């Protein structure tokens, strides 16, 4: 398992070894030992798993969980391909306002770890793209918030030729500056405390 720290503090990319043969292939997108070594947590305790299927051009996010309670995510692409994006929205973070993107596909089977308090978005690059998530807390609608993917201050990448398909909720989401002014963003110190 190859590990790479991303531009957002605490976010990590994992690239597992793929074992192809005449039957197809085998891959293990999450491996506890590699995760513990890279992230420093003793283990990832999943409280819920999520599965989404998207058509080409679908943009989901930027989504995040209010902190507290906060949650961490481990995400990989089970089918198709997507540009997966982590955004640092934690007020006081050394990488506040920065983002990084990882191509998730059926070649390298990369996965990403999202620490407490960061934002998550992705762009589906082909039809029937399936994203699989493990989360450390259960879904509570009132705790799930969104920011504008099109915020010019962030400048998130949208692959050329992509006509974004978005939910009404995501289209109406505030910018990073608007959410900060409204007191809706997570505090970095609180996020770090919840990560221990």
UniProtKB/TrEMBL annotation:
<dbReference type="InterPro" id="IPR011051">
    <property type="entry name" value="RmlC_Cupin_sf"/>
</dbReference>
<dbReference type="InterPro" id="IPR000888">
    <property type="entry name" value="RmlC-like"/>
</dbReference>
<comment type="similarity">
    <text>Belongs to the dTDP-4-dehydrorhamnose 3,5-epimerase family.</text>
</comment>
<dbReference type="Pfam" id="PF00908">
    <property type="entry name" value="dTDP_sugar_isom"/>
</dbReference>
<keyword id="KW-0413">Isomerase</keyword>
<dbReference type="InterPro" id="IPR014710">
    <property type="entry name" value="RmlC-like_jellyroll"/>
</dbReference>
<protein>
    <submittedName>
        <fullName>dTDP-4-dehydrorhamnose 3,5-epimerase family protein</fullName>
    </submittedName>
</protein>
């Amino acid at each position: 398992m190859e590990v790479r720290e991303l531009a957002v503090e605490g976010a990590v990319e994992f690239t597992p070894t793929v074992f192809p043969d005449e039957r197809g292939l085998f891959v293990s997108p999450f491996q506890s030992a590699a995760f513990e070594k890279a992230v420093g947590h003793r283990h990832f305790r999943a409280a819920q798993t999520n599965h989404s299927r998207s058509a080409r051009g679908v943009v989901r996010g930027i989504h995040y969980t209010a902190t507290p309670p906060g949650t961490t995510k481990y995400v990989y692409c089970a089918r198709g391909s997507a540009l997966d994006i982590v955004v640092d929205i934690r007020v006081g973070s050394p990488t506040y306002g920065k983002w990084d993107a990882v191509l998730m596909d059926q070649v390298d089977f990369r996965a990403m770890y999202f620490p407490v308090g960061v934002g998550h978005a992705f762009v589906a690059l082909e039809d029937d793209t399936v994203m699989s998530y493990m989360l450390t807390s259960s879904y509570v609608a009132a705790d799930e918030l969104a920011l504008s993917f099109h915020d010019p201050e962030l400048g998130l990448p949208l692959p050329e030729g992509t006509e974004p398909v978005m939910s009404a909720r995501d289209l109406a989401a505030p910018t990073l500056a608007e959410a900060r002014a409204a007191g809706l963003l997570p505090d970095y110190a609180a996020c770090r405390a919840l990560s221990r």
